[in-house]
Structure formats: C-alpha cells, structure tokens
C-alpha cells in the first residue's frame, strides 16, 4: 500500500471510483465525504488509468475483487504501455542489446509509490505516442497520426490536468528535432502522404479526442472555488512563479544519478549507475541519425532549469501558463538520457563492425572518469555526517516534505556505500568488457562476446531493479490480514451527522481504525505529530468520514460552501481570491463559532432535517446577515429563490430568528452512493413539510418526490431542500451529467481499443522478430 504523498491519494481515489461503480453501477460524479459534498470531475480525471477506464464500466463484475490488487494491476498495465512504447522507439535506432538497456533503465526507474504523476504518469504513454508518429511517417497512413493524437488525449486521464502542455510540447519537440536532423527521411515520408478525406478524418478524430479529454475534465467545474498557492485568480501562473514554484530547478540534482540518495518525494533520477557515464560516452558515439535524442534531452533539461527556454515556452506554448513545477519535469529528461546512454552502451559493448578502436577508448575513459568523480564525491561526504546532512539539504528543498530516510545518516551513508560499490563494478565493466570482447582470444567466438554483453545487461537489470524494489519497500506500508477489509468493495455508509474532526471519528469508525493500523503517516498526523505524506482531503473519500472541516490539506470546494464559511467567519461572501482565515496549510478549521453553525452544518442536528415551512430570500447577500445573526440557531429554513415558491413565504422578518420551526420525522435511507440518495420519509403532519439535506447544492442535482420531479432549492446558503407531501414520501436525489457519462463510456471504449492494440504490439515484438521497423 502506498504510504503517503500523492501515491496514497492516487490509490484512495482509484478505490473510491471503482468501489462506487461496483456498488452503484455508474461512474461517480459526486463525492459526498469531501467538503460537505463536491463534484468529482477533477478527481475522476487525475485517478484514471487505461485499465481503470474499462473497469469502471464493468465494475459490478468485480464485487469480490481486492481493489488494492486491482490498483496494482492497473499500474502494471500502464507500465506495459511504457515498456512497449520505449522498446519500439529504441529498436528503431538501436540494436537489440542497447534496446534492452534503454528499456530496463526507463521502466526500472519509474518508481511511483510516492509520486505516480511526475515520476510515471507524466510520460508513460509518450514513447508510444512517438512510435505512432513514426509509423505515420513510415507508411503515410493517417490512421497512425489519428492514433498518436488519440493516445495523447487518453493519457491525460490519470494525469494532472496542467501536465498536458508539457506532454504535448515534448512530442512536438521530438518530431521537430527529428525532422531537423533527418530532413531527407522526413521529406521523403511527407511526399508519400496523401492529403484527402483520410487526412481530414484523422485530424478531426485527433482534435475531437483532445477536445473530449478537456471537456470531461471541466464539466460542472464552474462552481468550484480553488485556493491553490502560487496561482493567479484565473488559475494561471505569473512568470516568477512559473520559474520558481516547487524548486528543484538546479543542475546539482543530477549528481543523484551517481549517488542514489533519492531525497525527493516527487521524483527520482537514478536509472542505474551506468546511466551518466554512458551518457557522456554516448556523446562520443553521436551520429546525425540519432542526434535528435540529445537535442531533445537538452531542450527539456533547459526547460527544467528555469532558463530562457522556460521563459519562451511560458509565453508561446498553448496553456503553458497553467503549468507549474518545471523542476519536476526532470524524470522526462531522465527517460531521454536513457536513450542517449544507449549510444554509449552500443559503442562500448555492442559496437558495429568497423568502429574505431580509438573512439571506443575515448568513450571508455570518459565514462570511467565520470564514475571516478562520483566515487570521490561519495567518499568525501559519506565520512562526514554533518557534511552529508548539508549536502542533502542543498540537493533538495528544505521547505518541501522529504522521505524519512533523508533524516537518517545511517540510511544515507548506506546508500552511498552501495553506490560506491556499484561505481567500482561499473568502472570495471566499462574498462574491461570492450577490451576482452575485441581481444584475439575471443576472435571468432561470437557466443562468448554475446555472453559478455548479456553479463553487462544482467548487471544493469539487477542494479536498476534492486533500486526499484528497495524503493518499493521503503515507501509502502504492509497491510495485516485483518486490515485487508478496507481494500475490499464496501457499501458507503450514510453519515447521519457530520463529524467535528477525524480524531472524534476514530471512536465510531472501524474503517478509520483499520486504516490507522497500516498507514503510519496517517497515524502520526492523527496524533498531532509532523507526518509528511497521507495529507490530502481526498483521503476522506476512502475513509468514509464526513468532516465539517478537514484534517488534511484542502485546495478547493464548491462556491455555496465558500459563501457559507465566509458568512460564519465574518468575511465578504463573494471573495473567491483570498483564502479564508480558517484555511491553514495542512488543514481546514470550519468556523463553528456562530450559534447556528453546528445545527446548519449537520454536526449537531443531523444532515437531514425537517421544517414546517421555508422562507425565501432573493440573494445570498441578503441571506448572509440572517445566518450570522447571534439570535439565529439554525432552526428556520431559508431558501434562495427570487420568485414565488409553493409553500415558501417571502422573508419579511416577522418571525423571530430565534424561533424553532424544525419538526421531527423518521426516515430510512434506501440508497446512498456517489450520485444518489434515496430515502423513505414518514411525515406525521397533515400538512406539507420541507426537508433539508446538508450536502452542497449544485445545479446538476435533480430530485423526485413520490416519483414526480421536484425542484431542488438552495437552502441555508450552501445546501439542498425539497418540499414533501403529508404522509409517506419517497425522496430521491440524483446527481450527474449525461454528457459526462457518455464521455466516460467513450474513453472506456477508447481505452479498451488501446489495450487490444498493446496486446497486438507485444505479439509483434515477441513473434514477428523484435518490433523493429525501418527508419
């Protein structure tokens, strides 16, 4: 189980959507446990994976599945997307041994337990997008161009929305540099392309795919208020924030490709001890046909270092002003460096016939010098504890959460000792294997030469996968069998009352108790200790706890709740730019000071309440002083409605605000999930009553009472209310957009198509040679 940071958030969201689909049969468009209820559009987008899209449409088939196992299966499938794409692109330009080296480095270094977005999902589909582009150039068939654009759109689900500009730029820059360095090949390919109906259809399909991806991520989002630090009110970044936000924009961090200290939560740069030496060696082996890998790596590297390249892209590339964390794009550079290192690998360990011996010697010496410098640095800092601490502080960012091992000198020193040993072995391989493979003793014995290459590849794989699994064990929590129930499909309990805090919920929530048993950062946070990781308010969707505030970091909520909080905090209710005073960096303290707050929010009187009548108020501005009045106890129901409403009086102040018009009524919950609440209400009165539900109002909510459509009024500033008939009433609330559901089904079918295509590509690689195609 990922123990914290974005990895735990990614799993918990993955669980919520799949579990909800298993229970209800549809994709959740609402999350009732977050911020008094919130739209799920953004979270649907960031938790998706290729297989997950398909599972959501067939979820009832998995009622008895372990959803943690399903989560790992989804990540495995996307890792296969990365593997297949990397192999196919590498095989275009390299022999099979170098292709294996490149693919092992790329796939083995994508450790996503802490950070699935920057360290994996940002780039997992890009090699395959590039391969589709190459096939378009190879064949002139527009279907490959359509597939490239379609996959670029599909990989936005499961990614951070603002990563799209960077992903699209990397693909564009790749083909721009490829065209510049292989102009003859590209021009010949373009002359074969036919511009007609297939071209129009392919481009239209690609653009429609990108538009659909953007649209499904924005449906209903106009009601969301965001308080993301560093962003301007419109969601963009200013240039200074763009160049500095999140740090990690220095060149020094790349020394970690030799040290493997891995002091960051958000990314790792280690991809085997041979990466950096072979990158340097690769510059000696550089040729025009593969020059674009070096130029692209340099371009993206300069982007991550806050250089004029970054400034230029901020101004000219579409939507780049929405992007932040340029330093965290470094894993994309690492992927590209694996391709550059493939040049050095091929020159030293699998050189083409006729390769100059002098060239091999220069490359070997250059590679060994890199390892010698790294070894000297290791010795210098490993033997001095304070110096090691200072070095790690300088390498990372003091203001950003860091993994636990960075505070343990013994753990850091152990990593350095291991890296020193790997450096010695790596230097020996670089110096000795080229010499032995070209010696007279091995002349005419290709099998032995191949064995030397296999030995080097075995070392590379052991090195990078040792790193991968050590990282896995360091950054995850083991679950005892007794706690595995929380990863099984589970009906969502209806919270009759809202919890004042997560700490108070522990006494009654068995699910929360079990989660504290396996998630150490969450337990420390509950105990009031500093605990990096497990920190986002999306955790409540997994814990099934409905807090009035939040024990975690909160960045957004819906506009009606924003106005209610500001009413109770005495702040301007229409302010959506300044964070409310109740919002701290790692938690949200809901202002419960005014007398009515406890009852209105569902903490004291319950989330479902009944009233003999309702009073209509024309606007939120006119309602605010009524709700903030010290005499108001939350026992009158106010609805926001400008016109006449059946059964609701216009508020004229004739009734004291201290009056109590709440009424008892029994109810039973018949259905509760992300998009639905159905209740049977027994109204003992002979007159109609009003029911309020302390779940945030949104225009996409619909209701029926006894099967007939009923208006859903915005009540008590933030919540919902409907009018009930005398006697028994069947009340059903439903949330959702048919457009969202249609697009979700489209992306599921789209993902299923790609899963089939991935299987065909694996078959192509395995049974039709190695997937190599002409360049």
Furnish the topology, listing elements before pairings:
Blueprint: H1 5-24, E1 30-31, E2 38-39, H2 41-47, H3 50-57, H4 67-93, H5 96-108, H6 117-121, H7 126-139, H8 142-154, H9 164-181, H10 183-192, H11 197-216, E3 224-226, H12 239-244, H13 256-259, H14 275-284, H15 291-304, H16 308-316, H17 330-349, H18 357-382, H19 385-395, H20 409-437, H21 446-474, H22 502-505, H23 510-518, H24 520-526, H25 539-543, E4 556-558, H26 559-569, H27 597-600, E5 608-611, E6 614-617, H28 620-628, E7 638-640, E8 648-650, E9 666-673, E10 676-683, E11 689-693, E12 701-705, E13 708-710, E14 713-715, E15 719-724, E16 727-735, H29 738-767
Parallel strand pairs: 6-7, 6-8
Antiparallel strand pairs: 1-2, 3-4, 5-11, 7-14, 9-10, 10-16, 11-15, 12-13, 12-16, 14-15
Gist of the model:
The protein has 775 residues and is an alpha+beta fold.
List the uncertain runs.
Answer: none
> What structural class do you assign from the helix and strand content?
alpha+beta
Strand order within the widest beta sheet: 5-11-15-14-7-6-8
Portion in beta strands: 5-15%
If you average the pLDDT, what whole number results? 92
Shape summary: elongated
Radius of gyration: 29 Å
What is the terminal separation in angstroms? 42 Å
Overall domain count: 2
Report on the biggest sheet: 7 strands, mixed
